[in-house]
Structure formats: C-alpha cells, structure tokens
Amino acid sequence: MRDLAIRVAVASLLAAVGCASGPIELYEGGPRDRSEIAVIRRSAARADLTVFRIDSYHTNGHEWHVEPGPHRVWVQLVQYGVAMNVRFKANMFCSLDFDATAGDTYEIASNSDQRFSGVNTEVKFGTWIIDGRGATVAEPQCYDRPPRFDASN
Fold first, then answer.
1. How many Å apart are CA 24 and CA 39, to the nearest integer?
2. Contact 78/46 with Cβ under 8 angstroms?
3. What is the edge-to-edge ordering of all strands in the sheet holding 136-138?
4. 75 with 108: CB under 8 angstroms?
5. 140-143 contacts at long range (C-beta below 8 A, 24 or more positions apart)
6. The pTM is what?
7. How far apart are CA 51 and CA 75, in angstroms?
C-alpha cells in the first residue's frame, strides 16, 4: 500500500511539473531582474518541435531563463506522414550553440515539411535560434538518433 501511495505522489508531482506553464529558471538562486538574465522561448504553436535539454538541464515547457553566456539547446523535430499508404514518423535531434546576452530574448524556430515526388517522400527538418532583433544566432548540428548524456550531466 505504501508503494502505491509513493507512486501516486510521484506521478502527481511529475504531472504538475510537466503542466507548468510559467518560465523555468535554469540557474541557481532566486528570481533575477530581467536585465540580468536571457530568455529562451519556443513557439507554443510548433507541435513539431520539443526542447528537451538546455545545457545540463533536462527540461520541457516553452520558456526558460538563463544566465548570460554560452548555452547549448537540444531539440527534437518530428514529422508524421503517409508515404505509399504507409504511415511514418521521422525524427531528428539537433543541438544549437549560442551566446546569450543579458536582457535579450531568443526564439527557437523550426520549419519542417514533406515533399512528394512520384513514389518518393522527402522529409526536411530545419531549426535555428533568433535573437530579439530577428538575427539568426544559432544553426543546428543534427543527428538521426537521440543523444546520450552521461550520468554526471
């Protein structure tokens, strides 16, 4: 009975964290003034893009607050489709490295699509990070397999 109670408590905690809609602070200490941090966002409308790691933090959500300096953002891009009457799911895992400036906001953007040519289906994945002025500050290094992270990070 105790094990069941623990599992229910853990599941409730995970559900609450997973449903959090506010920004996630990825630095130590309490909240900081907006002029002291950088904000990373992803568009909530992009169902094909999931941010699953920033630096050494496994994460989810739509907005993260970080210290100024270098950062690595990991994303998963997903495409669902049908080719020759067969449903498929294509994945791409990408890292994006950039230097964040205090007071600036960065958006993780994506543009994935499918092109049909006769019996062939071509899936294209694209992602990048833009700053508050619309300039591209990071382009991806992409892989067809999920990355492995060691236990220390």
1. 10
2. no
3. 24-25, 63-66, 38-42, 105-110, 127-130, 136-138
4. yes
5. 140/75, 140/94, 140/95, 140/96, 141/94, 141/95, 141/96, 142/77, 142/92, 142/93, 142/94, 143/92, 143/93, 143/94
6. 0.77
7. 4
Distance, in Å, from the CA atom of 51 to the CA atom of 108, rounded to the nearest integer, reads 9
pLDDT at 12 over 50: no
Q: Which long-range contacts (CB under 8 A, 24 or more apart) does 81-90 make?
A: 81/114, 81/121, 81/123, 83/116, 83/120, 83/121, 84/119, 84/121, 88/121, 90/123, 90/125
What is the spatial distance between Cα 78 and Cα 113, in angstroms, rounded to a whole number? Answer: 10
- Give 88-124 pLDDT, tens digit per residue: 788 899 999 999 999 999 999 888 766 666 666 667 7
In the chain, where the domains are located: 23-143
